[in-house]
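Regression test case RT-17, inverse folding.

Input:
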């Protein structure tokens, strides 16, 4: 898969919109990205997760783990393709933990999966869960890297797409100057 082919999947599923958007940070951007939109479609999920699965196929893996919610679909599909066990961590009192009787054995080899990485916070927390159970992280696979190349998990890592985030302060936004309609994604038009 080339970057162009992957981008076309995101555009076809409306996961990646171009226009003039108000981000939750208050900044403006010409692009808006919602990974869940592409993962609506099993055929796209399968294609993207195959890149992750193929990359880690040569590693010895016992279990795939993902942080809820974003990582669930990716972790499940990567685990399915590798025919490995899948478990997830979820937040309880703001802290990620293993619930529902999920457990990791000592020295169990674990692949961490996620949908989107910006600061990598949830993935770092999941890595800590693996280590605190004396299991071993073998790598980290995720769909989109939005960290502008900054995130380094210190394990073999693979993203299917690196997406640079360009945003502007409202006062400095070139799209405002062009008088392009400003849209708040997921809600009504605001201007
Ligand atoms: Zn603007």
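Golden output:
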């Amino acid at each position: 898969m080339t970057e162009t082919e992957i981008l076309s999947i995101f555009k076809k599923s409306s996961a990646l919109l171009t226009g003039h958007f108000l981000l939750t940070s208050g900044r403006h951007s010409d692009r808006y990205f919602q990974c869940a939109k592409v993962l609506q479609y099993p055929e796209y999920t399968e294609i993207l997760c195959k890149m992750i699965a193929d990359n880690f196929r040569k590693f010895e893996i016992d279990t795939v783990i993902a942080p809820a919610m974003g990582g669930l679909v990716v972790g499940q599909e990567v685990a399915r393709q590798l025919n490995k066990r899948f478990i997830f961590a979820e937040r309880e009192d703001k802290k990620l933990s293993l619930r529902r009787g999920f457990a990791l054995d000592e020295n169990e080899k674990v692949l961490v999966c996620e949908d989107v990485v910006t600061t990598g916070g949830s993935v770092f927390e999941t890595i800590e869960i693996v280590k605190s159970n004396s299991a071993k992280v073998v790598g980290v696979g995720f769909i989109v890297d939005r960290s502008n190349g900054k995130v380094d998990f210190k394990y073999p890592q693979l993203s299917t797409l690196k997406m640079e985030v360009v945003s502007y302060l409202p006062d400095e936004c070139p799209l405002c100057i062009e008088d392009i309609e400003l849209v708040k994604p997921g809600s009504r038009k605001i201007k």
